[in-house]
Structure formats: C-alpha cells, structure tokens
Write a structure and sequence with these properties.
- By secondary structure, this protein is an alpha/beta fold.
- The protein has a single domain, classed as Carbamate kinase (3-Layer(aba) Sandwich).
- It is about 35% helix and about 20% strand.
- The protein contains 8 helices and 11 strands.
- The strands form 2 sheets. The protein has a 9-stranded mixed beta sheet, sandwiched between helices. A two-stranded antiparallel ribbon has the order 7-8.
Length: about 240
C-alpha cells in the first residue's frame, strides 16, 4: 500500500443520530454536521467508496417513545422518519462541499429520497457518489446498527466504521461514568457477543460476525480519525474475525 493510500476500497460508516447534535441537547447542529461532512470528504477524496447509515436518536428513539404509550411499531416508524431528516441534513452539507451524494430510503418517500435498491446503490458508489441509507431496514423492531450490518453485507463493504461520540473505542465499562474503565485495542466478533460489550446490538454483531466484516470503533470528534481508519492506521478498537 502506498503512503497515504486507503486500505479499504468500500466502507460503511455508521453514525448515530446523536452524532449530529454537537453541543445541542436536541435536533441538529449545522456546525457539527458540517464538521462531519468535512471528515467524510477527506475519506472520499482518497478514492474510497463511502456508504453511510445514520440513526435518529437526536430526535427520538422508537423504544423510548413506546414506553409512553405509543404502539412500538408506530414508534419505530416515527424513528425512521427522524433518520430521513438526518440523512437529508448530512446530504446537504456534503453537497455544499461538492461531494456528490445520494439518499436512499428503506421506506417510500419519493419526493425527497430514492427508494433503496441494492444494485443502484452499488452503481452510485462505483460512480464516486456518497450514498446515505436512511430509515434503517424499513422494518420496526430493528435498530440502525442492524441496518448498518445489513447494508454492509449487501454492498460487500470492506469494513464498518462505527463513529462514536467522544468515546475512542470499546471499553469494558462506560468510560464516561466509570473511572479506570479498560479500553480494548482489538477484539474478535465472538468476544463482542460473549462479553456483551455494546459495540452494536446483538443482531447486528452476529451478522457482522457471520460475514467476517471487520469493525473499527473510533471517536468522531477526533479530527482525521475517520481518515486514519480508512487508511488502515490504528485508531480506536478493531473488531475482527
């Protein structure tokens, strides 16, 4: 691999909805979303094909809403709409940086996004477009983590980049609340499942394990961390087969 070159040809970037919060308690920070777009552009300029799955937790989580009396499936569909909002915000910031971007939604919302079609998504990636997969899997009871593992498998991504908010890897306890929490430099998929480390939900982790898709967990707030991960440099925690 030549210096500065990318290790991975095609990556699936998983962002939580909270990634768009910045310092806000709710909604979208245009400034922080712009920062994320800048970080994604750096990876794109390496010649890496970038697909993105984004959650909706900055607006709402279906499971949490369901606890307040809204039927769970309905609450999950509401969460999918939040994911579409986030996808459009990120698309707008990327396109303002001259990064061609397409949003594909797992639920039909033709006025603002293409329907998710696997072959079309791959075609966009091969043409150099960033593709944002919105609305999760399109099914209630499945998280955006599961959507990330599923889409990564469908497009044959080389790696899943799990961007976290101010957490620089996988720990044996929450480092934000537990003093002395131990960071793992490397883990196997089986260890993630057996130790229930919360890298992603169990369904997503099992799918990634079955496909032997490596996962890099890193801190989004560290400038160039995403770029370094795409280059194959050691960043955060590597989960592999």
């Amino acid at each position: 691999m030549t210096p500065g070159a990318a290790k991975y040809q095609r990556v699936l970037l998983k962002l939580s909805g909270e990634a768009l919060l910045g310092d806000r308690p709710f909604g979208i920070s245009p400034e922080y979303t712009r920062y994320l777009a800048d970080e994604i552009k750096k990876v794109h300029e390496l010649g890496v094909q970038v697909a993105i799955v984004i959650g909706g937790g900055n607006f709402m989580r279906g499971a949490a809403v369901a606890e307040h009396g809204i039927e769970r499936a309905t609450a999950d569909y509401m969460g999918m709409l939040a994911m579409v909002i986030n996808a459009l915000a990120l698309q707008s910031q990327l396109e303002s940086l001259d990064v061609p971007t397409r949003v594909q939604s797992a639920i039909t919302i033709a006025e603002v996004a293409e329907p998710y079609i696997r072959r079309r998504a791959i075609h966009h990636l091969e043409k150099g477009h960033v593709v944002i997969f919105a609305a999760g899997t399109g099914n209630p009871f499945f998280t955006s983590d599961t959507a990330a593992a599923l889409r990564a498998a469908e497009i044959s991504a080389d790696v899943i980049l799990m961007g976290k908010n101010k957490v620089d890897g996988v720990y044996d306890a929450d480092p934000r609340t537990t003093k002395g929490a131990k960071k793992y430099e490397e883990l196997t998929h089986r260890e993630v499942l057996d130790k229930q480390l919360g890298v992603m939900d169990a369904t997503a982790a099992a799918l990634a394990a079955d496909r032997k898709t490596p996962i890099i967990v890193f801190d989004l707030s560290q400038a160039n961390a995403m770029l370094r991960a795409a280059k194959g440099e050691h960043v955060g925690t590597l989960v592999h087969a």
